[in-house]
C-alpha cells in the first residue's frame, strides 16, 4: 500500500457520521505507522539527493521494516481469528 493512500485513510478516519470525535488506539497506531514510513521515505530521499548521513538512513530503514513486519503480523493474526470464527459451528 502506498504511503499516500495510508495517509489519506488516516486523515479521513473519524470524519464520517456516527464516528467518534477522538481517535481510537488503532487509528493512533495507523498514524504512527504512516509517520514511520514517511520519515523513512524522507530520509531515503535526503540520502540520495543531499548525501545525508548513511547511518541515519540505515536506522530509518530498519525502523520502517520493523513497523511493516508488525503490521503484517497483526493482519495475519486478524485473518487467523476470522478464519477460526468461520469454522465455529452455529
Explain this structure to me?
It is built from three helices and no strands. By secondary structure, it is mainly alpha-helical. It has one domain (3-87). Helix 1 runs antiparallel to helix 2 and helix 2 runs antiparallel to helix 3 (54-87).
Provide the fold topology.
Blueprint lengths: L2 H10 L12 H25 L4 H34 L3
Helix pairs in contact: 1-2, 2-3
Strand coverage percent: under 5%
Q: What overall geometry do the principal axes of the alpha carbons give?
A: elongated
Mean pLDDT figure:
81
Distance between the termini: 36 Å
| Total beta strand runs | 0
Helix content: over 70%
Structural class: mainly alpha
Summarize the helix and strand pattern as letters: HHH
Largest sheet: none
Q: In the residues, how many domains can be counted?
A: 1
Query: Can you tell me the residue ranges where pLDDT is under 50 for at least 5 consecutive residues?
Result: none
> Number of DSSP helices?
3
Radius of gyration based on Cα positions: 17 Å
